[in-house]
Amino acid sequence: MATPPKIALIGLGSIGISFAALHIQYTDAQLAAFDPRPDLQAHLESILPLYLGENSKVTVSELLSTGRLRIASSVEDACEGATIVQEQGPENLEFKQKTLISIEASAHPDAHLWSSTSGIPVSAQAANMKNKTRLLVVHPFNPPHILPLIEISPGPETAPERVQFAKSFFEKLGSGHRPVVVRKEVPGFVGNRLAFALLREAVSLVNEGVVDDVSDIDAVMEASLGPRWAIQGPFKSYAMGGGTGGLGAFLKNLSGSIQTIWDDQSRQPPNILDKDGKPAGWVDSLVKKTDVTYGLPTPAVIEDRDAKLRRVLEARKDTQ
Ligand SMILES: NC(=O)c1ccc[n+]([C@@H]2O[C@H](COP(=O)([O-])OP(=O)(O)OC[C@H]3O[C@@H](n4cnc5c(N)ncnc54)[C@H](O)[C@@H]3O)[C@@H](O)[C@H]2O)c1
Ligand SMILES: *[C@@H]1O[C@H](CO)[C@@H](O)[C@H](O)[C@H]1NC(C)=O
Ligand SMILES: *[C@@H]1O[C@H](CO)[C@@H](O)[C@H](O)[C@H]1NC(C)=O
User: Which UniProt key words apply to this protein (predicted)?
Assistant: First the structure.
């Protein structure tokens, strides 16, 4: 049997604790956790059980007393003996670069170095590293203990076997996670490019008064593309949109409509911040509308969403 991995988790916010829950549920890994927040243990004790779920057989105090989970006193301490170092601290370049210097200085030279960044490319993060072959982005979708997508985005100097290792790590978990390799360093990887293209259009439709309220946009998504795309992504589903003629028939038959819509969408997107770096006027008004419609999310609302996400994923389990 292969030796269980030793995983250093740097940063135990939303993403870090969620990854901790995933590793605890699906691996034999020993985890070392570092986060400078003074209440780290209490924080883990309050959040980790929610993520591990009601049926979890382990408690945080058992995890801590058996050494399966260790609270580390520094980045260096967490990296001691680690075979994988997974960083999900603050999203800023200075932090990532500085932390990678500590990681490189203290982790075993063979350790895999994974960044959870939502958008800072490996080439920028690794600028001051001596050896840039071990670092790659392993970008989750929140919360990664539930959502299966893992985007693996190497930098120009990342060794191919590091990409392969991360890919097979998630494929073999048995949790249903689906790693996808992103071959070029593009902003947003793939998931957020798709998401923010849609967000841009959603914002524009509300701002232009095409619908009465943000809830109309949500109704359109939830009643059509949401359920469909949970089962079939755009290519798989539009390959059926053309009947027996496949995607070719779909693009040919609808070419006029699709082109008219694309041309209309190609105008300049609005700025989110104005020249002084303050939110643009439309932002305020859109945020107000959304807050009035939905209120701010409470823990109960988040739990409800997670339970429903699990049921959707369960329903799509046997889908090819
Ligand atoms: N939240 C998301 O939807 C999401 C999704 C994918 C990726 N990410 C990425 O994951 C990372 C973390 O995001 P998050 O949402 O968990 O943020 P978060 O604010 O919930 O957590 C960040 C944690 O980092 C800790 N921290 C601060 N200084 C530190 C240091 N010097 N060393 C170690 N830890 C430190 C903070 O105490 C905090 O607990 C970011 O890079 C973010 O872009 C976030
Ligand atoms: C970088 O580290 C790897 C080990 O992961 C090693 O094989 C390689 O020789 C190192 N490269 C340099 C330039 O030191
Ligand atoms: C596409 O058009 C062809 C004829 O032009 C027609 O036979 C076919 O049914 C159409 N398919 C769809 C999906 O509209």
Answer: Oxidoreductase
pTM greater than 0.90 (yes/no): yes
Shared domain for 86 and 116, answered yes or no, is yes
Measured from the CA of 241, which atom of ligand 3 is nearest? Answer: 13
pLDDT per 10-residue tile (average), the chain, 320 residues: 90 97 96 97 94 84 95 98 98 98 98 97 97 98 96 98 98 96 96 96 95 97 96 94 91 96 91 94 95 92 91 87
For ligand 3, the distance from its centroid to the CA atom of residue 163, given in whole angstroms, is 43
List, chain by chain if needed, residues with CB within 6 Å of any ligand 3 atom: 242-243, 249, 253
Asked if the structure places residue 145 within a domain, the reply is: yes
- Residue 263, Cα to own-chain centre: how many angstroms? 31
The gap between the terminal CA atoms of the chain, to the nearest Å, is 31
Same-domain pairing of 201 and 62: no
**Ligand 3: which residue has its CA nearest to atom 11?**
242
Atom of ligand 2 nearest to the CA of 131: 1
Which pLDDT belongs to residue 320? 65
The residue assigned the tokens 């589903």 is 237
Name the residue with the closest Cα to ligand 3, atom 12. Answer: 242
Query: Distance between CA atoms of 288 and 295, rounded to whole angstroms?
Result: 10
Co-location of 116 and 212 in the same domain: no
**Which residues form the domain of 211?**
191-231+271-319
Q: Which of 76, 99, 118 most suits a substitution to test ligand 1, by most atoms within 8 Å of the C-beta?
A: 118
91 CB within 6 A, ligand 1: yes
Q: Are strands 135-140 and 149-154 parallel, antiparallel or unpaired?
A: antiparallel
Cβ neighbours of residue 283 under 8 Å, at least 6 residues apart?
272
